[in-house]
Amino acid sequence: MNPAAIWKKTIEPARGSSSLSPSYSLLRPMIRLFKTSDGPVAEHDEKFYKLNTNADWDTLINSEYLYQKISDLLESCTPSEEAATAAKSPLAPVGSQEIWAAGVTYFSSRLARMEESKDAGGGDFYSRVYEADRPELFYKSSYVRVRGPFEPVRIRQDSSWDVPEPEATLFISSNGIIQGYTIGNDMSSRSIEGVNPLYLPQAKNYDGAASIGPCLLLLPEPISKDTEIHLAILREGKVAFAGDTSLNQMKRSFEDLVEYLYRETSFPTGAFLMTGTGIVPGTDFTLQSGDEVCISIDNIGTLQNPVE
């Protein structure tokens, strides 16, 4: 994907365009649900609606069938410019949920993890988990550490090799049902994790190590496996790195990941699960302060964050 195409696909929507992805189909009546400072806002058929509900965010998104719940609420709402304006400055669509993450779900991620940890003797671990029935799942962040759209993400001061990890992210209700889809940035300190796989929590879980947004994509059916994910990292206004992948490159299904996550763990207000990355910058690239990370997923939009 050339830089001009990346700019059009990632930067223009982030600057306030309300248009949906070109892959939007009129046969799929999708809804995008935004958490805003003015309350929940839903986008449907390119119109924005402030929802008439007294429910707090946790209660709302844990509705038994969220897509139908929001559809019903829309029947009593009218579109407004105020709602459209609020949706241009969304908050992270997170309430009190924990954020978890899955690792090595793409072949490209398997190769990258094996390469970064080979000197420490841990390369074989990643090959094994890629082939195993049980996935790699780890606690990524509490809600208080999560950054929303346009908020800065951080690189650790004691790390010398840092990358973003663009990931399709699930919102799963308290009863273990996938209710919506969003974008996650699983910031990673590869120099720390590469020294020893046991340092994974320090490489993955620190202030500003996760961003989520800009909305929850609600669908009446599972998201298409042909959905594409795009990453562009801008440095001084120019593309320093770009890559793309699609959900059909994942080895594991979303349902399999959710089943393992919920197997012995309860989530009273639901959970967010980052599902792994298929875009991995090479060993010659590391993030720098001042970079801009732009992650786009078809029909969801763009998650854009500056780097501190």
Describe this structure in a few short sentences.
With 308 residues, the chain is an alpha+beta fold. The chain contains nine helices and 16 strands.
Features of the shown structure:
4-stranded antiparallel sheet; globular; 30% strand; 10-stranded mixed sheet; disordered N terminus; alpha+beta; Fumarylacetoacetate hydrolase, domain 2; 308 residues
Detail the topology: elements first, then pairings:
Elements: H1 3-14, E1 31-36, E2 39-44, E3 47-50, H2 57-61, H3 66-74, H4 81-87, E4 98-103, H5 107-117, H6 123-131, E5 136-141, E6 146-147, E7 162-163, E8 166-172, E9 178-186, E10 188-189, H7 190-195, H8 200-204, E11 210-218, E12 228-235, E13 238-246, H9 254-261, E14 271-274, E15 292-297, E16 301-306
Parallel strand pairs: 4-14, 6-11
Antiparallel strand pairs: 1-2, 1-11, 2-3, 4-5, 7-10, 8-9, 8-14, 9-11, 12-13, 12-15, 15-16
Helix pairs in contact: 5-6
Structure explained in plain terms:
This protein is α+β, with helices and mostly antiparallel strands. It has a domain at 98-306: Alpha-Beta Complex (Fumarylacetoacetate hydrolase, domain 2), CATH 3.90.850. It has nine helices and 16 strands. It has helices at 3-14, 57-61, 66-74, 81-87, 107-117, 123-131, 190-195, 200-204, 254-261, and strands at residues 31-36, 39-44, 47-50, 98-103, 136-141, 146-147, 162-163, 166-172, 178-186, 188-189, 210-218, 228-235, 238-246, 271-274, 292-297, 301-306. Strands 1, 2, 3, 4, 5, 6, 8, 9, 11 and 14 form a ten-stranded mixed β-sheet that branches. Strand 12 and strand 13 form a beta hairpin. Helix 5 packs antiparallel against helix 6. The longest helix is centred in the first third of the chain and has 12 residues, at 3-14. It is globular and about 60 Å long. Mean pLDDT is 89; it is low at 1-27.
